[in-house]
Amino acid sequence: MKYFGTISAAICAAGILVQSAFGGEAPKKADDAKLPPAATRAVDFVKDIQPIFRANCYACHGAEKQKSGLRLDVKAAALKGGDEIDIVPGKSAKSPLIINVAWINEDSRMPPPDKGGKKLSDEQIGLLRAWIDQGAIWPDGV
Description:
mainly alpha, single chain
């Protein structure tokens, strides 16, 4: 046990040195506590999610444009993701789509405020979270 304690102390000290070397801050990452909570009801893609995508996302991630390779108007493309996997079914807090629309990271806010985008409401983010947590069910042919 004494050996384990020594290793733990060394790892802790190394972490402090690394933090100091990078300005005293650990890299920013999504914190579930910073996200609006998921809706508690069953979510319907056509009724709840598609209108959010249509109103806020299709201009940059639709049929005409696919910024960062992301297309949100076609099921297969949306679930495949763009430059990264944006929707992780069952794990909304780990889905970049949620992190981006919740404006957690300043450099990846969607829709982008510098292009006139407005942050989604907590209710909209909650619906998106619930949809993803419920398996990101997207009916075929929609």
